[in-house]
UniProtKB/TrEMBL annotation:
Residues 1-41 have a biased composition (Low complexity). This is TIGR02611 family protein. The keyword Disulfide bond does not apply. Residues 49-59 have a biased composition (Basic and acidic residues).
């Protein structure tokens, strides 16, 4: 056979030896290692995982005192910021507990007391969750109402209710925060 073969078959040279696979559109695949469908095969050397790259960088930092101090300081600042943000969010609907636990997890990568605190708080949270799930629905509704009251009280104290009322043109002095 001379020339090239039709779509989806093997292109052959004038001597009859196969040279390239053609895709259904009739063109060659997109580069070395590409299959007939156009997907590329995995490279011979896989890229290290994120965890392995982190461990490698962490080990390099441990060998240098200045890098060690900088690393621990950075982890301390970042973890503390996430932890504080999580604590602030706890009374509100949303991911407060998750963010707080994430902050402790970040701190726990470098500081043993944070690792122990995270384990302790996880156990306490799991016990609380199991306890409240085992209660009568009326008790759970009371817990929900209590959480709502805390959220509403905090929003009022921060002046957000008065601000929101002002945005829609309401002048309700009883929404003003006592904190000013």
């Amino acid at each position: 056979m001379t020339g090239t073969a039709t779509t989806g078959s093997t292109a052959e040279s004038a001597t009859g030896s196969a040279t390239t696979e053609l895709d259904p559109a009739g063109s060659a695949p997109a580069g070395p290692g590409a299959t007939e469908s156009g997907a590329t095969e995995p490279a011979a050397t896989a890229r290290p995982s994120l965890r392995d790259r982190y461990r490698g960088q962490r080990e390099r930092a441990r060998r240098n005192r200045a890098a060690e101090v900088a690393w621990r300081t950075g982890v301390g600042i970042a973890g503390s910021a996430v932890l504080v943000a999580g604590i602030v969010m706890i009374p509100y609907p949303g991911p407060g507990w998750v963010v707080a636990f994430a902050g402790l997890a970040v701190l726990g990568t470098e500081f043993e007391p944070a690792r122990r605190a995270l384990a302790f708080l996880r156990r306490g949270y799991d016990r609380w969750d199991a306890w409240q799930r085992g209660r009568h629905p009326a008790v759970r509704l009371l817990l929900l109402a209590g959480t709502g009251a805390v959220v509403l009280g905090t929003v009022w104290l921060l002046g957000a209710l008065e601000f929101g009322a002002g945005l829609i043109g309401l002048d309700l002095p009883w929404l003003a925060s006592p904190l000013g």
